[in-house]
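hiii, so i know i said id send this last week but things got crazy w the move. better late than never?? heres the sequnce for the chain we talked about at the cafe, plus the structure i predicted for it. fair warning i was half asleep when i ran it
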Amino acid sequence: MELRQLVKEVPYLLETRGDMSVEIAALCSNSREKTENGIFFCFAGAHFDAHQYAPQAVQNGCVALVVERFLDDVNVPQVLVSNGRAAMARICEAFFDHPERKMRFVGITGTKGKTTTSYMVKSICEQAGFKCGLVGTTGNMIGEKHIPSSKTTPDPIDLMRDLNEMVQAGVQVVVMEVSAHALDMHRLDGMTFECGCYTNLSQDHLDYFGTMENYFQCKKAFFTSGMAKNAAINADDERAAELLRDVTIPHMTYGIAAEADLFARDIEITENGVSFELRLRNAEYIQINLRMTGMFNVYNALSAAACALILGVSPENVRAGLESIHSVPGRIEMLPTNTPYRVILDYAHAPDALSNILRTCRTFTKKRLIALFGCGGDRDRGKRPIMGAIAADNADFVIVTSDNPRTEEPMAIIDEIVAGLKDKQTPYTVICDRIEAIGWAIDNSRPGDVILLAGKGHEDYQVIGHEKHHMDEREIVAQFLEERKKS
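okay and structure toks below
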């Protein structure tokens, strides 16, 4: 595709230099990648400015640049734009012939519940006969085909490549987790969602957004910028009234406590699942028997049902789709240990999420509830003592360990968590090495105990420094149990 064709719809275009008829055959955001006739995107990030790497990109095969300032020392065509990230999204859409215009999109945003809700919406839509794609934290999916991804909402190049593959595979509905980072970084500019869903807001990502107000305003923009045509909104969330006040698109509210269009009644929770009546105001009710437990999964089911009803899916397909899901990777995932105690894997890595999962586990814990968790490095430090206190308030024993320390000193992170435990009566221990900590939990468990491994969930790696090291907690637990069995 000629460069001029690629950029003709970019609203951020200011000026061009050089031959705009040059053919572009590849998209590039990493100057070290070898490309042939590539276009390299230059914009300033949090840690480096890509403009300084333009010569390397040209040396590796790029024949054009998208820039936020002209570069005099690089002799290739340049496209000057006012916002490099936003322009990148539009150019990627054009390069892949606009896959975002060829499918229906459901976007789910909020602090918690995005992943589980997305799996539920996908299941419901498949029950209704749609071929579905999924984009989210656990990776991307085309039907049952899994495509690895490192971000909740991928960068535009990866996202549009995967969406184009979905178009080729005949996907009709795409369910996407929409992260606040993706919205703020303009990764989804140019996309329109038939339904946008707001699940909730609680403390997370303050290392990036600074304040909860900034975080909320970013989420709210998804519903007020024209990106979403319809909205499903959790009426029980404390920021819902403010969101509803400013939302002008058609919307459906859902909830349990607040007055809502869609609500759940007669909720019964067991360790094996949840049953409840799903009721639509002034209409019929549906009996739902989820095979996933926890009050938070009632909310996730309501979120998914609201999205599906907005798409026009029948209530019966909503019921069948919800009831067909057994589990979501790393979300209250009960590992097959065949032991007199349970081991549960969960992605909870923020205060509210940890509180919710511990309170859910408490409902079926016969003896002790053991919480093993850490906090990620280079992320919101303010939540660390809060999570320590939450663990102490809701568990019988706490094991403080490492999560993804990244470039921070692991024990420094642990010390900040322990600050929230020190004034509590709950016993705890500190074991910095996470694998060692898991082994200690297994060795010291008793019949009737529940061990919660919180924070990693579906992740099969640990980030130390800038390197990812393989670490799958399912494998670790299985290996420890096999060794104990032999000994």
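btw The first strand starts at residue 13 and ends at 17. thought thatd interest u
miss u guys!!
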